[in-house]
């Protein structure tokens, strides 16, 4: 059983500090929602995000969308051997049921995430498909743990938890690295260059599928 954690995922609602920016207000009005209820998206809110802290890591929910589709479509998930968690850049912990059918249309996915942040749980037929947990990152880490990071040792599929950064640029926050250090996580890589989150997700899952 693999527990996959999308770490510091670029998934969050528009911060209050930029909620009055014309780019955000226009998007929210078009969608008939409050500015702070919509998901931050660099493609729509680029001008508003200019002075946000960690700006290079934010506003890319499409990365989470792609990684979730890859994970949920996998043979590993179909065999019931995959658990998926999202650790957002804001520190929320989201559990994703293997039975979840994530919309393939990006705009519908964004709408679903907005519903999740508002309701804290999405369920159907009594099954909790998505839920925001009152948990910490440390509480969802099962040992042994691997953090996928450039410069790490060669990856091998022998950990119970694999953490993959789900943001476009930059590095992990020191507080996140401290948690993983306490969990005795070792650092691993699939090669000697920078790879996208989606490619790393594919490679990790395929490695575990080989040993199913």
Question: What do these coordinates show?
Answer:
The protein is of the alpha/beta class and about 210 residues long. The chain folds into two domains: about 1-10 and about 60-210, SPOUT methyltransferase, trefoil knot domain (Alpha/beta knot, 3-Layer(aba) Sandwich), CATH 3.40.1280.10; about 15-55, no CATH class. About 30% of the residues lie in helices and about 25% in strands. The protein has an eight-stranded mixed β-sheet with strand order 4-5-3-2-1-7-6-8. It is globular. The model has no long low-confidence stretch (mean pLDDT about 95). This is Ribosomal RNA small subunit methyltransferase Nep1. Homodimer.
Quick overview:
With 212 residues, this protein is of the alpha/beta class.
**Distance between the amino and carboxyl termini:** 9 Å
Q: DSSP helix count? A: 7
Number of strands: 8
Question: What's the mean pLDDT score?
Answer: 97
CATH class of the largest domain: Alpha Beta
CATH architecture of the largest domain: 3-Layer(aba) Sandwich
Helix content: 25-40%
- Per DSSP, what share of the residues sits in E-state strands of 2 or more residues? 15-25%
Total of domains: 2
EC number: 2.1.1.-
Subunit structure: Homodimer.
Keywords: Methyltransferase, Ribosome biogenesis, RNA-binding, rRNA processing, rRNA-binding, S-adenosyl-L-methionine, Transferase
Protein name: Ribosomal RNA small subunit methyltransferase Nep1
């Amino acid at each position: 059983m693999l527990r996959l954690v999308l770490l510091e995922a670029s998934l969050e609602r528009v911060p209050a500090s930029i909620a009055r920016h014309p780019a955000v207000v226009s998007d929210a009005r078009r969608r008939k929602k409050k500015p702070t209820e919509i998901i931050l998206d660099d493609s729509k809110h680029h001008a508003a995000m200019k002075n946000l802290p960690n700006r290079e890591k934010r506003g890319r929910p499409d990365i989470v969308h792609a990684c979730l589709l890859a994970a949920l479509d996998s043979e590993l998930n179909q065999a019931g051997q995959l658990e998926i968690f999202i650790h957002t850049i804001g520190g929320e912990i989201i559990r994703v049921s293997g039975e979840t059918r994530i919309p393939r249309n990006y705009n519908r996915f964004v709408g679903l995430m907005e519903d999740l942040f508002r309701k804290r749980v999405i369920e159907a037929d009594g099954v909790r498909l998505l839920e925001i947990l009152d948990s910490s990152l440390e509480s969802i880490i099962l040992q042994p743990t691997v953090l996928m990071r450039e410069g790490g040792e060669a990856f091998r599929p022998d950990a119970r938890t694999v953490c993959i950064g789900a943001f476009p640029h930059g590095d992990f926050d020191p507080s996140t690295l401290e948690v993983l250090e306490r969990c005795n996580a070792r650092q691993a890589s699939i090669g000697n260059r920078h790879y996208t989150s989606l490619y790393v997700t594919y490679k990790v899952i395929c490695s575990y599928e080989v040993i199913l």
